[in-house]
Structures are given as C-alpha cells and as structure tokens.
Amino acid sequence: MRNPFRQPSSARIAIVGALLGAFASAYLLVDYVFGSGICLTGSGCDIVRASSLAYPLGIPMPLLGLVFYLVGLGLVLAKPATLLAGQPVGRVAVAWALIGLAVMTILTAAEAFVISAWCSWCLLSKLGSILLAGGAIAARRGGNAARADDIRSSRARRRHGTLLEQSQHDLRRFTATSSGLAVAAFVVMLGVPALSGAAPSATLGPGATDRPSLGGGAIEVVVYSDFQCPACAAAAPELAELAGEGSATIEYRYFPLVSIHANATAAAQAAQAAALQGQFWPFHDALFALQTTWANLPAAEAFRTFESIAGELGLDLARWRADASSRDVARVVAADRLEAEQMQLSGTPTIFVDGVRHNGPFTYGALLEAVRAAED
C-alpha cells in the first residue's frame, strides 16, 4: 500500500523554504549586529540597511524574519503529517505561511519602489517564504484525501497510524539533515572572512586627524564614506542633522570602493581639492545630491560635473583643477582608503561613534542614541 503522506514535493518543500528563509535571516542578523563583511555595498544590502525599513519599531528586520521562519518550521514539524492529513495545526501552518508571504511581498515592493535597491539576501528570504507557503498549501491539498475520519475499519486505521508515524519520522529526519547542511554552510560563510583576516574592526584605530569636520560636539563621529555609494548619500543628511544637534563632531574620511565604483576616487579627490579652499561640505552635499547624474558617466564626463559644481560654489577653478589632479590630494584619499582597508572595513558608510563601530541604522535617531550612550 502506498503511503499517502509521503509527499516530498510538498511537505519537504515547505521545510526547505523555512530553512532557507531562516538561513538568510540569520546571516543578515549577524551582519546587522556585527558587520560580518560578506554583504557588501553594491549588492543593495547596505542601502536597504540604511533605511528605516530595516528597523521597524527599532527591531532589526532580520530578527523578525528569523522568528517567522522558525515558527513556521515548528508548525510543520510539531506533527508533520497532520499538515497532510488536514488537521487544524496544518491549517495554522498554511495561514502562517501565507501571512509571511504577504509581508515579504510588501517588503520586496518597498525595496523596488521606495528604497530603489535590491538586497540579495532579502530576495533569498523572499524565495524561502514562497517555498514555505507553496509547499504547505500543496501538502495540505494532497493530504485531504487521506483523513483518518474517512477510514472505517480498525485494521485500516492501524495501517493509517503506522503510515502517519513513518511519514513524521521521515520528515523529521529530512529536516535534521537539511538543518545540518544549513548550519555547516552558515559557519563556513562566517568563518572564511575571519580566517582570511577580513573581519571588520569594531573599534577605530589611530588615523588621520586633519580631515573635514562638521559640528562642535564633544563626541567624535567618524564616517568612512564613498561619494558614489547610494547608502552614503542616504546617511549624509542624517549625519548633518546630528552635527547640528550639537553633541557630536562629524569627521569625514575617504573610502572609495574602487572595485565597484569607477568614479568614486575622482569624486573624493575633487572634494578634497574643494576642502583646500574651505568648501568641502558644500561640495560634499552637491556630490551626493547629483550622485545619480555622474555616478555612471565616463571619467571625463564625470569630472566635468565635478568642475561644474566647483564653478557654482565660486571656487578658484584653476587652483581646484590643479589640486584635484595633484599627488598631495591623491595621497590624502589613498591614506584614508588604506586606513579603512587595514581595519578590514568592507562597506560604506562605516561609522564609528566615540571610537566604537556603529552597527545600528544610519538614521538621526539611532545615531543620536549612540552619541548619548557614548556621553554616559
């Protein structure tokens, strides 16, 4: 007799979806809290993390995702075959999966139309929610024909119970194996950067002391930033607001991510040339405001945009051109970048508050809270 509960195309898909979503959420949670260095600027993860969407009610979104997927997995595994046999816990599992799918759909739409950035790990989590919901629904539909209530003879009922128990054992064994593989992959992904020396610094080491600064507060807030980075553009006004509050002094350090941002170094040198004429912060604001217009231009055209900004700010253009291409300015930018690389920083913006790396959202409220904590 065929076991009606052995449906790897349904219940097992739901389990894989829950594990996949939990895996992505757990990695993102580690990255949010510790900054593991795998999720880099350019993937969109940093841009999403810099938004308010990443911390609803101050709670890291990946933590909520991890709880959702673990609860979903628990509902499937509490009594696995009841999902297939049409029992109440199966209905709860399906409802829970559908709620999660709806929330993930809303979040994905927000990334596309509000934040205008895609986080690859968020998309992996979205795939997990699709598999969890689709597998749960398919399993429940497939199992409705195997309800114990429809079996009249005692022998058939005993056979039914045996098959149900066997199915539960198989599904739990499958989950244990899949979970082991997921944990192993998780450990490897977090361990490889550490073994290669790519673990980012949690504290600010000694570095440049003459970089552009804004504000006059007692708490030093150092930001390693890239003018071509969208997340840096989003964080810039939040940092300016923090400087205006009066408790902190913002210090800017150049960290052009040359592997993914072709014009970032030239923009940094253009800003440093403006700094030599006392106009760094207006130039800084203009570069971020016009980022989408120059970011993907050929180098010569991007430089003409920088030159236009310099002209609008009333800079001595002859001096600015000479400085922007000078070795001294290039050394300043290169020194900041080397400093960041020696600390194994991998993404931008990277912010240190009173020497300690800030791993919360890059919003005014979160940054002010970190400054207040540093004052205590």
Please tell me about this protein's structure.
The structure is a single chain. The protein has 2 domains: 11-195, VKOR domain (de novo design (two linked rop proteins), Up-down Bundle); 213-375, Glutaredoxin (3-Layer(aba) Sandwich). Strand 4 and strand 5 form a beta hairpin. It is mainly alpha-helical. It has helices at 11-34, 45-49, 61-78, 80-84, 88-115, 120-143, 154-195, 230-245, 264-275, 280-289, 291-294, 299-312, 317-324, 327-342, 364-375, and strands spanning 213-214, 219-225, 248-254, 350-353, 356-357.
Record the SSE blueprint.
Blueprint: H1 11-34, H2 45-49, H3 61-78, H4 80-84, H5 88-115, H6 120-143, H7 154-195, E1 213-214, E2 219-225, H8 230-245, E3 248-254, H9 264-275, H10 280-289, H11 291-294, H12 299-312, H13 317-324, H14 327-342, E4 350-353, E5 356-357, H15 364-375
Parallel strand pairs: 2-3
Antiparallel strand pairs: 1-3, 2-4, 4-5
Q: Give the % helix.
A: 55-70%
Give the C-alpha Rg.
27 Å
* Residues in β-strands, percent: 5-15%
Amino- and carboxy-terminal Cα gap:
71 Å
Q: Shape, please?
A: elongated
- List the quaternary state of the chains: single chain
Separate helix tally: 15
Going by CATH, the architecture of the largest domain would be: Up-down Bundle
What's the CATH topology label of the largest domain? de novo design (two linked rop proteins)
CATH class call of the largest domain? Mainly Alpha
Derived from helix and strand composition plus strand pairing, the structural class reads mainly alpha
- What is the average of the pLDDT values? 83
Specify the biggest β-sheet. Answer: 5 strands, mixed
Query: What strand order characterises the main sheet?
Result: 1-3-2-4-5
Secondary-structure element order, N to C: HHHHHHHEEHEHHHHHHEEH
CATH superfamily of the largest domain, called what?
A: VKOR domain
Low-confidence stretches: 1-8
User: Using DSSP, what is the number of strands?
Assistant: 5
